């Protein structure tokens, strides 16, 4: 027997009930409501429930460049192109040896400034699978305009003249923190869109056995290789080589937009990453939701910036000064932190 569709059923009921009493009409409609169809009609009507696609998960790692000559001289670098110092070259080498050796990543991005690009080239030489480095000028450091190249003491004088907070300060021909954050946000949102496209291409390539695509990727984790945190499969892994100020604003944007921070991260979020410091996340995209999990922030793998030694020196210095001096030192620490990003 030919199956009836919903419009035909209701038309038949309408014409049948048209000449019946009110009691009969109500009875028929109640029966239709309670018993919508016979089991023989199963599958007649299309399913209305939508099956959601599995979430897309990938690794996202931010890497600050090694020490540059501008860092060594203590000047405001901004977008002025200072190369890596001898120490910076060594830091990049050690980072590659200790954190990404034989690692499998899908994408590498870098600022076009030489201190960032050279760091990327050195680190990527240790990767197990090294995709081409994609250069993007949106990854450049904050533009300090006419003040680039000034010593930090001279920059402080200009900041006092402007009479505003460092975050709001916009040097002539330069950017404010808000401008830099918008630039970082534009890059990250474009990146998330491109990863969705990459995943479709990857699935098709894996099905067809196309080379240069893998079923899973990895994130940096010391000398050991971690396929994925908590046994989750990462279908992409991205390295972004940039600058201290840019990474700081990128992380602030991600926290504002996607709320990844636990209490321990909130203090670190205000700090600038050390040279060759890395911050790694896993990102889960399941429309329309984006979920970030921070694995570590501002982690270092080179001997030139030993956090334990810095902590011990700070404790010894703290014990050696009086309480009033300690209070004065604390009051000045926030101002120094504001200026730390100009030397990136």
**Spatial shape:** globular
Strand count: 6
Strand order of the largest sheet: 3-2-4-1-5-6
Mean pLDDT: 77
Q: What's the number of helices?
A: 11
Strand content: 5-15%
The radius of gyration is 29 Å
Element layout with pairings:
Elements: H1 6-17, H2 22-34, E1 56-64, H3 69-73, H4 86-99, E2 107-110, H5 114-124, E3 133-135, H6 152-162, H7 177-208, E4 237-242, H8 244-258, H9 263-269, E5 278-286, E6 289-299, H10 307-320, H11 323-340
Parallel strand pairs: 1-4, 2-3, 2-4
Antiparallel strand pairs: 1-5, 5-6
Helix pairs in contact: 4-5, 7-8
Structure characterization notes:
- The protein has 344 residues and is of the alpha/beta class.
- It is 44% helix and 12% strand.
- It contains 11 helices and 6 strands.
- The chain has a 6-stranded mixed beta sheet.
- The chain starts with 5 loop residues before the first helix and ends with a helix.
- Mean pLDDT is 77; it is low at 1-5, 37-51, 222-228 and 305-335.
Key features of this structure:
11 helices; single chain; alpha/beta; globular; disordered N terminus; 344 residues; six-stranded mixed sheet
């Amino acid at each position: 027997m030919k199956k009836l569709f919903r419009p035909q059923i209701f038309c038949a009921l309408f014409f049948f009930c048209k000449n019946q009493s009110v009691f009969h009409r109500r009875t028929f409609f109640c029966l239709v409501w309670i018993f919508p169809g016979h089991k023989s009609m199963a599958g007649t009507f299309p399913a209305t429930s939508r099956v959601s696609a599995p979430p897309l998960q990938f690794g996202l790692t931010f890497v600050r460049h090694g020490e540059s000559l501008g860092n060594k001289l203590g000047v405001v670098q901004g977008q002025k192109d200072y190369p890596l110092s001898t120490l910076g070259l060594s830091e990049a080498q050690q980072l590659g040896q200790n954190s990404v050796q034989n690692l499998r990543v899908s994408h590498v991005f870098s600022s076009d400034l030489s201190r960032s690009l050279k760091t990327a080239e050195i680190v990527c030489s240790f990767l197990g699978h090294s995709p081409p480095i994609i250069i993007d000028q949106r990854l450049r450091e904050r533009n300090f305009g006419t003040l680039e190249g000034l010593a930090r003491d001279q920059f402080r004088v200009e900041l006092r003249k402007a009479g505003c907070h460092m975050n709001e300060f916009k040097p002539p021909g330069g950017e404010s923190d808000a401008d830099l954050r918008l630039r970082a946000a534009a890059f990250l949102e474009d990146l998330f869109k491109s990863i969705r496209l990459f995943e479709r291409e990857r699935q098709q390539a894996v099905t067809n056995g196309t080379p240069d695509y893998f079923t899973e990727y990895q994130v940096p984790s010391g000398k050991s290789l971690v396929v994925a945190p908590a046994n989750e499969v990462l279908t992409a892994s991205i390295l972004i080589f940039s600058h201290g100020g840019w990474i700081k604003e990128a992380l602030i944007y991600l926290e504002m937009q996607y709320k990844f921070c636990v209490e321990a991260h909130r203090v670190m979020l205000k700090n600038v990453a050390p040279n060759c410091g890395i911050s790694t996340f896993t990102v889960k995209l399941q429309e329309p939701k984006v979920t970030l999990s921070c694995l570590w922030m501002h982690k270092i793998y080179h001997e030139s910036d030993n956090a334990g030694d810095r902590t011990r020196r700070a404790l010894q210095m703290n014990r050696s000064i009086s309480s009033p001096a300690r209070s004065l030192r604390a009051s000045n620490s926030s101002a120094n932190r504001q200026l730390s990003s100009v030397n990136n």
